[in-house]
Write a structure and sequence with these properties.
- By secondary structure, this protein is mainly α.
- It is built from 9 helices and no strands.
- The chain has helices spanning 3-21, 34-46, 63-67, 71-77, 82-88, 96-115, 119-126, 138-141, 145-160.
- Helix 1 (3-21) crosses helix 2 (34-46) and helix 2 packs across helix 6.
- It starts with a helix and ends with a helix.
Length: 164
């Protein structure tokens, strides 16, 4: 298994443990199996922006646990209100704008986890002020396409040791 697949699968496994612990919190219809979650992640990581990617709304309910972000923050990053986020989880299919933003978010998380060799160091970096990003927190830049591009470029600089 490739390193990329292992790190995503490790996060899915970790989330599965949290999901089982708090199973009473959300209705089961929002729960996806581990295989469904992994398939959704694989589709999002492989999506190149061309064509249509069909992703069930229930996948949206898994995103806060996978990214370790609160629902309100995930909704903000996906350019929707918290109410719309909860409503979208019941939809049979997510709209392409949401799928595109999810794809970008998961690609950033994947690259970040590779560059920082884990989710926790990457999360710390997301919350830190970064000089190359105008002394802004990378997490705050993930709401726009240009911000996501800047964060990916910053991750590349970290990965290759170019900090200036």
């Amino acid at each position: 298994m490739k390193q990329k697949e292992r790190s995503v699968l490790k996060n899915v496994t970790r989330y599965g443990a949290v999901q089982r612990k708090h199973q009473h919190v959300q209705p089961n219809k929002w729960r996806a199996s581990r295989n469904d979650v992994q398939a959704g992640i694989d589709q999002l990581l492989g999506y190149g922006g061309v064509g249509t990617l069909r992703l069930q709304g229930s996948f949206l309910g898994e995103v806060p646990g996978l990214t370790n972000l609160p629902v309100a923050r995930v909704a903000e990053l996906l350019d929707m209100s918290k109410t719309t986020f909860y409503r979208a989880k019941d939809e049979p299919e997510l709209d392409m704008g949401t799928v595109d933003r999810l794809s970008s978010l998961f690609k950033i998380y994947q690259r970040g986890m590779e560059a920082f060799e884990g989710l926790e160091p990457f999360e710390e970096w997301l919350q830190s002020k970064i000089a190359n990003l105008g002394d802004q927190h990378p997490i705050d830049l993930l709401m726009t396409e240009s911000g996501r591009t800047a964060v990916l470029e910053a991750i590349d600089r970290v990965e290759y040791g170019v900090y200036g």
